[in-house]
Design brief:
Blueprint lengths: L2 E2 L4 E3 L14 H22 L5 H26 L6 H16 L5 H4 L4 E7 L4 E5 L4 E4 L6 H14 L10 E5 L5 E5 L8 E5 L8 H6 L5 H12 L4 E5 L5 H10 L7 E5 L15 E5 L13 H9 L5 E4 L6 H10 L6 E5 L3 H12 L8 H11 L2 E7 L6 E14 L2 E10 L5 E3 L6 H9 L4 H4 L6
Helix pairs in contact: 1-2, 1-3, 2-3, 9-10, 10-12, 11-12
Length: about 450
Amino acid sequence: MTVTDGHRRIWSPPLESTDEVALADAGTRGRIKSRLEERLVEEMGRAGRPLSSEDQVMLGQALVGEALRDEAAGRLARGEQLLSAEQESVLGADVVAEVTGAAGLEIYLSDPTIRDIDVNGPDNVHITYRDNRRERVAPIVGSAEALDDLIRLLARRSGVAVDGSPLALEFALPDGSRVTAVMGRVAPWPVLSIRLHRVAETDVEDLVKWRMMPPDLGEMICGLARCHRNIVFSGGTGVGKTTLASAWGHEIPAGERIVTVEDTYELGLHLDGRHSDVVPLLTRRPNVEDKGAVSMLDLTRLALRLNPSRVIVGEVRGGECVSLLDAMSQGNDGSCCTIHASSAKQAFTRMAKYASRAPEAPRREDCMYDIADAVHLVIHLGLNRSDLRPIVRSVREVTGMLEAEIPGTRPLWEAGRDGMARRTANRMSPDLEDDLACAGVDPSVLAPGNRS
């Protein structure tokens, strides 16, 4: 029997050790498993895209009969006893469960409360929950070799070819979860790190419930999506930048054309069912011959030619910053990006640094003027000091002028005693206030000094 959570298989028991299935020894099982894996990868290659867990199970069930027929033909050729119908049924179901599952990972991949899975060798596994709790859990495999095999299997099923002994692998699981693996050449054992994809279902209202921001700021962020303001979401690693950008994106009016540019599908706007006109562009790494790479810069330039209402760059870290600033200042208002930075002000210096990597490499001063002209707000995120949950720490409106050689800003929300952003006594610009009012934001949110 297979236990499920309603959508995904969590656990399947091993092949029962009975007289009826005794002939299904390790050699038989290995041959059928190897044949099924081979055929599964071939069919997914023909599909030209990663398949969901449910689709992989259905395909495995369709292909396992072929593997069992090959086994029967081999047994006949060797003069060996054939498996009974019951043996074939039990063995086929068990092998499909193993090949299309993810070993001991499956229960964690299916848990909506988990954010990260880190596997340091076969017997050292840590999980991080969405509330930033972290704990060590039971091993997921029995050996370093089994962990290496699991990593390769996950990669192949995600449409990534694994040749030889690579130093590392990076790929996305069919559900969008991001995988980074070190294959052991620079570590004593294989290392696997998975950032689970949970953002497609998240709304700004959810983030308010999780105490990521106060209600007044949540309403203001929803209004920003509706009134076409360009936003930079800044912060360190794991503070919720992509989660907030995705939740903000859900508030974009349904009729707009959105182009997203990402390394792995994390924003999920093309999956949320609310927007029918989304073009999700994804970078590609070079093949073994160091050809075929498609960069963020390539895709951001392509995005501008796809008639977008808005361009959303999952994470700016290179020359694509120039093309994004072009989008923000040339009619694609309402665009956004995320960026790694320790403060809202540092986001500007990081953007200038990344812009210098573009082929056109604008001067730093010119880039700062471009940023001041294109970006309307910087929303900075961090972690709460007491329980380490992600929070919005500040919101700054860009004034459009340079101050001390970087774009000047007006703090609208700043960190309070608990670290979370609170409304300041500063008025926002009349243009922003009028736009937010037209977008339906409550006047009490717009007023300075609000402490909701």
